[in-house]
Amino acid sequence: MLGTWLLLWGGLALGSRGETAFLRRADDSTGRCTYSFTVASPVEAGCPDGGGVPELRAELAALAARLSRLESRERGMGGSGPRGGEAGGVRDPQHAAPAARLEASYGELLRAKSRLEEEKGRLEREKEELGRRLESSAQEIARLRATRCPPGGEGPGRDTLRAPAKAPRWDPQPLAYQELQSERTEVPASQLLEETALARPGSEDSGCGELVWVGEPVVFGRADSIAGKYGVWMKDPEPVAPFTRETTWRVDAVGTEVRQLFQYEAAEQLARGYPAKVHILPRPLESTGAVIYRGGLFFQPRRSRAVARYDLRGEAVTAEREIPGAGYHGQYPYSWGGYTDIDLAVDETGLWVIYSTEKARGAIVLSKLDPETLEIRRTWETNIRKRGVANSFVICGTLYTVSSYSAPNATINFAYDTATSTSRALSIPFENRFRYLSMVDYNPAERQLFAWDSFNMVTYPVRLSQA
Beta strand pairing status for 409-417 and 343-347? Predict the structure, then answer.
């Protein structure tokens, strides 16, 4: 409208000069709207030199230029005002940079969302796989429990103790083999089966004898985190209510602040991985030497030569005592390391502690402890180098050692009898199925070895000769 007004103004100016002017408005060849003036010369019949009126031509040229600029601005702003070309044409550089940053951030958020969705899918798949593994393990445990021969049981299962399939595992020297054969043939099968049923400690027949056989490991559970690379699991052979012989306990021993004691109602619950309760110990424990006995957890507090008793019902430490001269925190460990300087054990006769001292020059020292006060009742010094064996346990007052923690076909290689204060070499096969044995303890109530082998919690059936 402004351009039309200007053209009319120009026509009026020409009319004031007495000249007739014609205004024509039409689209050109490109579709652009143009305005044209036609003015007849009052004095000239022709335009030989193309000159005409100089003032008029200059004024028309200026009007045409202004009209062109105005139309350009109108098209740029969509007809909304004279500054439309500036507002809708070129973007302000000051606003362009923040907009670019916002677009980049939005793109990064979309990519992060995509990554999180992928991770969620992966975790869900892992969860499903773990569920399948747990279900498979529970079924395997149920199958193994259904086929295992209970101690002292009757029926066809009792013949499996002497099954010919076990014979190839024996490969000692000829003289030792003859001696073992002689001992085995002197024991009637019925009497041997009666010995496998544990009598209560202190009774006339406790079923004690010498260790002559260790069976293959049976897996009860597996730790899922790196904290369970090595640890300790156990049952109380003489439980105190409300706990039972089926109550199972576990400690994952990797770390510097090991305080969690997991409680399970039974081994099956341990296999499923869901504890009934988690006890938080008031002091962190050291390594894998802990045991459960008569309602208490006996353990070595971290970086000390002491032994402590944690009452499971009262959830407090009720006794603590130093072991005189005992090495600790890596001075006299087993061959696999792990700060296993002080190792506790339980057998038919009570509570023991296995360690070494500077006076013993690294040889194993064995002491009997009072389970209430932790006072040392008696001590034996052996000639077995503690660093030279992988682990040890006590059965019927005799200390037994394991030759290797990583060799698949290890042996029970030494025995020390506290009744005679003598030691002897052995060669009883012992299988390290998972090649990293960090804990072995004997449970006199079940007549089995409990062990921790590279994340796996296993048991070994054992057989004793007649005392």
Answer: unpaired
465 within 8 A of 183, measured Cβ to Cβ: yes
Helix axes 2-16, 54-77, angle to 10 degrees: 170
Tokens of 6: 């200007």
Q: Say whether the peptide bond before residue 242 is cis (omega within 30 degrees of 0).
A: yes
What is the pTM assigned to this prediction?
0.58
Q: What pLDDT, in 10s, does the model give residues 162-213?
A: 444 444 443 443 333 333 333 333 333 333 333 333 333 333 345 799 999 9
Q: Is 46 left (phi over 0), alpha (psi -120 to 50) or beta?
A: beta
Q: What is the pLDDT of residue 28?
A: 73
Average pLDDT over residues 346-355: 97
Predicted pLDDT at 235: 97
Could you tell me which of 266, 229, 234, 429 has the C-alpha nearest to residue 345?
Answer: 234
pLDDT at 108: 83
Q: In this structure, how many other beta carbons lie within 10 angstroms of the beta carbon of residue 268? A: 17
Q: Nearest CA to 371 among 396, 341, 346, 406?
A: 346
Chain centre distance of CA 274 = 15
Q: How far apart are the first and last CA of the chain?
A: 124
Q: Output the pLDDT for position 91.
A: 53
**Side chain identity, residue 150:** P
List the Cα angle 307/313/318 in 5-degree steps.
30
Element (H, E) at 320: strand 316-322
pLDDT band at 80 (very low <50, low <70, confident <90, very high): very low
Reference 4, options 24, 20, 30, 28; nearest CA is 24
pLDDT tier at 74, thresholds 50, 70, 90: low
Amino acid identity, position 405: Y
* CA count, 13 A, side-chain hemisphere, 462: 30
User: Helix (H, G, I), strand (E, B), or coil: what is residue 106?
Assistant: helix
Instruction: Tell me what pLDDT residue 182 has.
Output: 31
In terms of average pLDDT, the best of 25-34, 39-48, 118-127, 384-393 is 384-393
Closest CA to 394 of 344, 437, 438, 430: 344
**Can you state the percent helix, strand and coil of the chain, rounding each to 5?**
30, 30, 40
Which residues, other chains included, contact 162 with Cβ-Cβ below 8 Å and sequence gap of 6+?
A: 189
Cα 376–Cα 378–Cα 380 angle in degrees, nearest 5: 120
Tell me the three-class secondary structure of 252-286, residue by residue.
Answer: ECCCCCCCEEEEECCHHHHHHCCCCEEEECCCCEC
Retrieve residue 361's tokens: 């020059």
